[in-house]
C-alpha cells in the first residue's frame, strides 16, 4: 500500500497541518507527522478540501461524444478538484432505463478519475408524458438516487406529484429544471431591459419562480424531497426561503456563472454567454450570493454543459445553450464568495462537497478530512491568480465564458480514494 504525507496544508482553511494517507484512507491528521515510508507533498499553506461533489454535470455519453465523454468529463472533473459527479440524463439514448444508467456508471468506474453517479430521467425520453422506470434505475448497479429531466421541465403537475410520491419510498430526490414552457417559448435571454433593447425573446423570471412555487407546495403535500436546479433569480430565492421556513424539504443549487455574470454580457452577442436559465441581472447575482452564504441555497453545482465549437461559434439565435464549468467552478466561487468575505473555506467545503454528497447520497464523498475517512481530497493554491486558458482544459469542449478573464485559485492536487488523479496541476 502506498503512503502519502501532505505536509503543511490548511485543512478547510484552518491552521496548517499534516495529513497522512495510507492506501485509500486518511490515517492521521496532525502537526509534525512522520514522513517515514511516505511520498511527501509539500502543501506550503495551500488549502485542503474534501473532494468536490457536483450534483449537476452533463457528460454527454452516450450519444454526443463529439462534445464530451465520460472519460474526458471525469478528467475535467479531477482537474477542477472533483471526486464525484452526478451525470445528467439528457443523453442519446436518454438515461431512462436501468440499462443506460448502468452503462454510464460502468464507464465512470473504468475512467478512474472521478466517481460517476448517473441521474435517471423522470419521464420516458424526457418527454414529460409517462414516468420512467424510477424503481428499476434505483435498484440497478448504478443505485440511482437523483432523478431529473434537466434540459426540460417536468411541467405536468400530476407527473411531478407521482414522481415525488415514487421516490419517497427510497428517499430519492427529484431535481427540477424549473422552466414554465409556455412562458419561455422563443426565449433567447433574460427578459428585462437588455432583452428589450436588443429585441431578443425574453425568458422571464416568473417562468422559473412559478414552477418552484408549485413544486415546493407539491413536495410539502406529498412529504417528499425536491431539489431545484440552477436557481437564477432573486424571486426564486424568496420562494425557497419561505418554503424552508415552513419546514418543506427543498434544497437548491446555484451555478458559478449565475454568481458572477449578468445579462449585460449578451450585448456582445457572443453565444458563449447563452445559457439556460439565462444570465440575469446584477440584483439577482447579489441575491444569489447572499442566499448561498446564508444557506437558503444549499450548494454550488456546475451545470457543466460542453458543446462542440460548431454548436457555439455561430449566430446567437442558432447557438446551443450552456457553458463548461468543472475546471473553473472553484475559482469562480473563490472570486465571488471567498474573496468577497461572504464564505470561508469551511463554507466552501460545505456548499461544494458535504451538502451535495448528502443530497445525492454519494457514499464515501463529502466526508470530513479526518482519520478513518476515505482519502478523497483536493489541494488548492488560493494565492494564485491568473487568466483562464481553455487550451489547457481536459474537457473535450472549450465553451467557457471566462477565456482570458483573471480568476483566483488553482487546484494543484486531487486524490480519489488515495490515488492521485492530479499532481502539480497535471492529470496522472
Ligand atoms: Zn437545466
Describe the model.
The chain is α/β, with parallel strands linked by helices and 428 residues long. The protein is built from 12 helices and 19 strands. The chain folds into 2 domains: 3-47 and 372-427, Roll (Urease, subunit C, domain 1), CATH 2.30.40; 52-360, Metal-dependent hydrolases (TIM Barrel, Alpha-Beta Barrel), CATH 3.20.20. The chain has helices at 70-79, 98-111, 134-139, 157-168, 193-198, 205-222, 234-245, 256-260, 282-294, 309-312, 329-338, 345-360, and strands at residues 3-11, 16-22, 25-30, 39-42, 47-50, 52-57, 82-87, 115-118, 146-147, 173-176, 189-190, 202-203, 226-228, 250-254, 299-300, 377-387, 406-416, 419-423, 426-427. The strands form 4 sheets. Strands 1, 2, 3, 4, 5, 16, 17, 18 and 19 form a 9-stranded mixed sheet that branches. The longest helix has 18 residues, at 205-222. The two termini are 18 Å apart. 57% of the residues are buried. Zinc ion binds at residues 150-151, 177, 229-230.
Comma- or semicolon-separated keywords:
alpha/beta; Urease, subunit C, domain 1; nine-stranded mixed β-sheet; 22% strand; binds zinc ion
Q: Could you tell me how far the N terminus lies from the C terminus, measured between alpha carbons in angstroms?
A: 18 Å
What's the helix count? 12
Mean pLDDT: 97
Number of domain modules: 2
Extract low-pLDDT stretches. none
What structural class do you assign from the helix and strand content? alpha/beta
Helix content: 25-40%
The value of Rg in angstroms is 21 Å
CATH topology of the largest domain, which one? TIM Barrel
Instruction: Tell me the β content.
Output: 15-25%
- Write down how many β-strands occur, each being a DSSP E stretch of 2 or more residues: 19
Bound molecules: zinc ion
Give the C-level CATH assignment of the largest domain: Alpha Beta
Let me know the CATH homologous superfamily of the largest domain: Metal-dependent hydrolases
Main sheet overview: 9 strands, mixed
Instruction: Please state the second-level CATH architecture of the largest domain.
Output: Alpha-Beta Barrel
Amino acid at each position: 500500500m502506498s503512503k502519502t504525507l501532505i505536509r503543511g496544508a490548511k485543512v478547510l482553511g484552518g491552521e496548517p497541518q499534516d495529513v497522512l494517507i495510507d492506501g485509500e484512507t486518511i490515517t492521521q491528521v496532525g502537526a509534525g507527522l512522520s514522513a517515514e515510508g511516505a511520498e511527501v507533498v509539500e502543501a506550503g499553506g495551500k488549502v485542503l478540501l474534501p473532494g468536490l461533489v457536483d450534483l449537476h454535470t452533463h457528460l454527454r455519453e452516450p450519444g454526443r461524444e463529439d462534445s464530451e465523454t465520460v472519460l474526458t468529463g471525469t478528467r475535467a472533473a479531477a482537474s477542477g478538484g472533483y471526486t464525484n459527479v452526478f451525470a445528467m440524463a439528457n443523453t442519446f439514448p436518454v438515461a431512462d432505463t436501468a440499462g443506460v444508467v448502468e452503462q454510464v456508471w460502468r464507464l465512470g468506474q473504468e475512467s478512474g478519475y472521478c466517481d460517476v453517479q448517473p441521474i435517471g430521467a423522470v419521464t420516458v425520453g424526457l418527454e414529460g408524458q409517462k414516468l420512467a422506470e424510477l424503481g428499476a434505475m434505483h435498484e440497478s448497479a448504478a443505485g440511482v438516487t437523483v432523478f431529473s429531466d434537466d434540459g426540460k421541465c417536468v411541467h405536468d403537475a400530476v407527473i411531478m406529484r407521482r414522481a415525488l410520491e415514487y421516490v419517497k419510498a427510497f428517499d430519492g430526490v427529484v431535481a427540477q429544471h424549473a422552466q414554465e414552457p409556455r412562458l419561455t417559448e422563443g426565449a433567447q435571454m433574460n427578459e428585462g431591459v437588455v432583452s428589450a433593447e436588443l429585441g431578443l425573446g425574453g425568458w422571464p423570471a416568473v417562468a422559473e419562480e412559478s414552477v418552484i412555487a408549485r413544486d415546493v407546495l407539491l413536495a410539502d403535500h406529498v412529504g417528499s424531497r425536491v431539489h431545484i436546479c440552477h436557481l437564477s433569480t432573486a424571486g426564486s430565492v424568496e420562494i425557497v426561503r419561505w418554503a424552508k421556513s415552513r419546514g418543506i424539504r427543498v434544497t437548491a443549487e446555484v451555478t458559478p456563472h449565475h454568481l458572477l455574470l449578468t445579462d449585460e454580457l449578451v450585448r456582445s452577442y457572443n453565444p458563449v454567454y447563452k445559457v439556460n436559465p439565462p444570465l440575469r441581472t446584477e440584483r439577482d447575482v447579489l441575491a444569489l450570493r447572499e442566499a448561498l452564504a446564508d444557506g437558503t441555497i444549499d450548494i454550488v453545482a456546475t451545470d457543466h454543459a460542453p458543446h462542440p465549437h460548431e454548436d457555439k461559434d455561430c449566430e446567437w439565435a442558432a447557438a446551443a445553450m450552456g457553458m463548461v464549468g468543472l475546471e473553473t467552478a472553484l475559482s469562480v466561487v473563490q472570486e465571488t464568495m471567498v474573496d468577497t468575505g461572504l464564505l470561508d473555506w469551511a463554507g466552501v467545503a460545505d456548499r461544494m462537497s458535504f451538502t451535495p454528497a448528502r443530497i445525492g447520497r454519494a457514499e464515501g464523498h463529502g466526508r470530513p478530512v479526518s482519520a478513518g475517512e476515505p482519502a478523497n481530497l483536493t489541494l488548492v493554491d488560493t494565492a494564485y491568480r491568473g487568466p483562464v486558458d481553455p487550451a489547457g482544459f481536459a474537457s473535450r469542449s472549450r465553451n467557457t465564458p471566462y477565456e482570458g478573464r483573471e480568476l483566483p485559485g488553482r487546484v494543484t492536487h486531487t486524490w480519489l480514494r488515495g490515488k492521485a488523479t492530479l499532481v502539480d496541476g497535471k492529470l496522472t
